[in-house]
Amino acid sequence: MSAIEVYADIWCPFTHVGLRLVADRRLVRGRGDIAIRVRAWPLELVNATPLDKSRVEHHVRELRDQVVPDMFRGFTPTAFPKTTLPALSLAECAYTASDAVGEAVSFELREALFEHGLNISDARVLREIARAHRLGIPTEQDGAAVLADWHEGQRRGVRGSPHFFCNGRNVFCPSLDISHDDEQLRLSKDLPALDSFLDACFSS
């Protein structure tokens, strides 16, 4: 069975939008048999520094104003995490249970951050998510899997978060048309580009 792989970090707002659009299009096409495997692309390691909270807040406003007015309503900058490594480890732990559990946890972590204003670096928040999916506490092996994903992504030429792979095709952020205008981003959904990628994913 084919799977859609995506290298991404949890605190990337573009990934939150992209994953939801992919899941929505998968539902419309009736292809729930195709898993979404979210691989770790830890931006604090990629960039050698954590994401800047004010920059993410700015991108959240741009996405909400231009693309998805129904999303990011619960985003709380004061709860923005200092790291995503523990949350990424929890997602790795979830995927060891099954693709379905891994996907559910990956989506729920982003919902917790961007829709419910929760700090996903808080151990209590992570324990609640783990408990809801009958998972234990992530182990050192799960932390090592985060690093393994990162290095594998480097070998595969990942450009950033989110970068999708499926059936021999790969594309960076296929669901959004992103352009720059001075200091602002001009954003819109690019469903034709997304559907072109998904055609390849669902062809098998």
Please bin the fraction of helical residues.
40-55%
SSE order, as H and E? EHEHHHHHHEEEEH
Q: How far apart are the termini?
A: 8 Å
Quaternary status: single chain
Number of E-type strands: 6
The biggest beta sheet is recorded as: 4 strands, mixed
What's the gyration radius in Å? Answer: 16 Å
Instruction: Write down the overall mean pLDDT.
Output: 95
Q: Mind telling me the CATH superfamily name? A: Glutaredoxin
CATH class: Alpha Beta
Number of domains as seen in the coordinates: 1
Structural class label: alpha+beta
Contiguous helical run count: 8
Unreliable segments (pLDDT under 50, ≥5 consecutive)?
none
| Net shape | globular
CATH architecture grouping: 3-Layer(aba) Sandwich
Q: How are the secondary structure elements laid out?
A:
Layout: E1 3-8, H1 13-28, E2 35-40, H2 43-46, H3 53-66, H4 85-97, H5 99-114, H6 123-132, H7 140-156, E3 163-166, E4 169-172, E5 176-181, E6 184-189, H8 191-202
Parallel strand pairs: 1-2
Antiparallel strand pairs: 1-3, 3-4, 5-6
What report would you give on this structure?
- The chain has 204 residues and is α+β, with helices and mostly antiparallel strands.
- The chain contains 8 helices and 6 strands; from the N terminus they run βαβααααααββββα.
- The chain has helices at residues 13-28, 43-46, 53-66, 85-97, 99-114, 123-132, 140-156, 191-202; strands spanning 3-8, 35-40, 163-166, 169-172, 176-181, 184-189.
- The strands form 2 sheets. The chain has a 4-stranded mixed sheet with strand order 2-1-3-4. A two-stranded antiparallel sheet has the order 5-6.
- A hairpin with a 2-residue loop joins strand 3 (163-166) and strand 4.
- Helix 4 (85-97) packs across helix 7 (140-156).
- The radius of gyration is 16 Å and the shape is globular.
- The relative contact order is 0.20.
